[in-house]
Amino acid sequence: MGKASFREDILAAGVRVMLRSGYEAASVRDICAAAGAPHGSFTNHFRSKEAFAAEVLDRYFAHTKEYVRQALDDASLTPRARLKRYLDIISGVLADDEWSRGCMIGDFSLEIAPHSALLRERLEAIFQEWRALFASCIADAQAAGEIDSAFDPVELAEFLLASWEGAILRMKVERGPAALDRFKHIVFQTLFKEQQ
After folding, report:
1. pTM metric for this prediction
2. Is residue 195 part of a domain?
3. Where is the DNA-binding region (predicted)?
4. d(CA 71, CA 94)
């Protein structure tokens, strides 16, 4: 019988540890300890911490896309309501963590994008895919006459994601929902205001 592979355990632990501590503060030793894996297992499966972090980001984004699908694929809601539903789902997830952690995509963008071409490129690809999902829903809301068509759906999706990430950063500082609530209230009373 061959040796057990700790690859999946290390990746799962990497998501938890890096989400809590960030990239720099999450040591390989901490990640292996959280996975219950020998320290040497990390180098058996990953060529570097940077390459490992790219896989962790992919795993985190796959999980995030499940929340996106849960909201944006809900045919029982109008497109505008689907957008609001996504923000409410994420607010609930953040509340469950007592406003103490944010979004790994946003956190990595701040922390390591200036220092790693590999991770910067991966983050850019994630944002493009994420933006496309929201742009499609925004275009549907505009076609249905629910929201104003003055702005391009891709531009609105970019604004939505960038502003939402900023609200999450403020939430982490304040350790409360005020920034998220303020963002949702303002954006749905202005850019995404329901058309009469």
Report:
1. 0.92
2. no
3. 27-46
4. 16
